[in-house]
Specification:
Blueprint: H1 2-15, H2 19-48, H3 50-57, H4 62-69, H5 73-86, E1 90-92, E2 97-99, H6 102-108, H7 118-127, H8 131-140, H9 151-173, H10 180-186, E3 189-193, H11 199-207, E4 212-217, H12 220-232, E5 239-243, E6 254-260, H13 269-279, E7 280-291, H14 303-321, H15 335-344, E8 349-355, E9 359-365
Parallel strand pairs: 3-4, 3-6, 4-5, 6-7
Antiparallel strand pairs: 1-2, 7-9, 8-9
Helix pairs in contact: 2-5, 2-7, 3-4, 4-5, 7-9, 9-11
Bound molecules: S-adenosylmethionine (SAM).
S-adenosylmethionine binds next to helix 9.
């Protein structure tokens, strides 16, 4: 019976194939296969200084870049051609030289630029190292803690989000909140919860020297890294980093609490919201930064949604599932779900203060 029905279906399926659609999809898949292989090459270029060497030396041959970076020419030439085919390096056919446009240099050679993208490749590669664990989790439904990942996930995540904070946090996001910038200028106490490597905390401390900041994260390795970065940035006098979870971090009466790209990673975002409410001073503000997303799946079927749904499957959803409650909001939760959690916790005010192509910025008050 089964064989018969399969036989009957086969010709119908073949007849419905749209050659153009198939070729378009295959072309997209080839692009993605190239991108997947390129991710390893991006990290090699980052760690061996190939991008920085290209940026510093101007147009140069593969031999010149290899000499400048003390690497092997044959490997470097192949790396350059892979990048040129990706559109990430310029190739000048007349001279056989390679170079970076100003935009390519911002994306790959300048760690401090708001367009630096290397962290994205780093986190994607490192997340895949949990392959066996993830495969098992798909079957059992168990969670995987943030701390259980490869080190590249923590470092890559910090480097992936930092450019967005450099370009937006002090200039746009904080001024979009009601009265917060003025209070930070005058000097208030701030908690940054789920701070990771603390780049958001440090940027705020650099901009508002009269305020005092404490970054909290449950993950010891991230807090250790954040402490080193605060010293390097020269703000250790006004920033401290402490191990603390979203439902037990220390201190009281904060006038401003921030959570950057971490609420959806928490097992119990509702419990965290209630705890944050209890830790805010009267009139205090909570800023929640979440990935950009619409409320419905069909609104997120685009390149941003693709990157975040994939990252969420690899890291955010397993992280939440590993914790108490395990709500697993996912990185594409959208405004309606975040609003309902925050208002359900007892906040009386919630609004979308602003948005960027990759982030939603929410303001909540007591
Ligand atoms: C995607 S990372 C974002 C880190 C940082 N805010 C940033 O923007 O770079 C999520 C962070 O949330 C932290 N985290 C997850 N669950 C937590 C919890 N229940 N309490 C405190 N931190 C938590 C993780 O350790 C991780 O550092």
């Amino acid at each position: 019976m089964q064989a018969q029905s399969l036989k009957a279906e086969a010709p119908a399926t073949a007849a419905t194939i749209d050659e153009n659609a198939l070729h378009e999809l295959l072309g997209k898949a080839i692009t993605d296969v190239g991108a997947t292989s390129l991710a390893t090459l991006v990290l090699i270029g980052d760690e061996l200084g190939l991008y920085r060497g290209l940026a510093a030396g101007g147009a140069q041959t593969s031999a010149e870049l290899a000499r400048r970076t003390r690497t092997a020419e044959r490997y470097v030439r192949e790396w350059l051609n892979a990048h040129a085919a990706s559109g990430y390096v310029q190739y000048h056919a007349a001279t056989g030289k390679y170079g970076l446009s100003p935009e390519q240099a911002m994306m790959f050679a300048q760690e401090e630029s708001p367009a630096f993208v290397v962290g994205g490749f780093q986190i994607a590669l490192a997340a895949g190292r949990a392959f066996d664990r993830l495969k098992q989790a798909f079957v059992t439904g168990e969670g995987i803690g943030w701390h259980e990942h490869d080190h590249g996930v923590f470092h890559g995540c910090a480097r992936f989000f930092r450019p967005g904070y450099i370009g937006n946090l002090v200039q746009h996001w904080i001024p979009s909140l009601d009265g917060v910038k003025q209070r930070l200028e005058a000097g208030i106490r701030v908690a940054d919860v789920g701070c990771g490597y603390g780049y958001s905390t440090i940027l705020m401390a650099q901009a508002f020297p009269k305020s005092k900041f404490t970054g909290f994260d449950y993950h010891r390795e991230s807090i250790d890294a954040a402490r080193v970065r605060a010293i390097e940035a020269g703000v250790a006098d006004r920033v401290t980093f402490e191990i603390g979870g979203a439902k037990d971090f220390a201190g009281d009466n904060y006038e401003f609490i921030t959570v950057f790209d971490a609420l959806h990673d928490m097992g119990d975002p509702a419990g965290a919201s209630r705890y944050i409410l209890s830790k805010l001073a009267p009139g205090g503000t909570w800023m929640i930064v979440e990935p950009y997303a619409g409320d419905r799946v069909e609104e997120n079927l685009n390149p941003i949604g693709r990157a975040y749904y994939a990252g969420s499957t690899l890291m955010c959803t397993p992280c939440s599932l590993s914790q108490e409650v395990g709500l697993a909001l996912g990185a594409q939760a959208g405004e309606a779900r975040v609003r309902s959690i925050v208002m359900g916790a007892g906040f009386t005010h919630f609004r979308r203060a602003m948005q960027s192509p990759v982030n939603l910025i929410f303001e909540a008050r007591k």
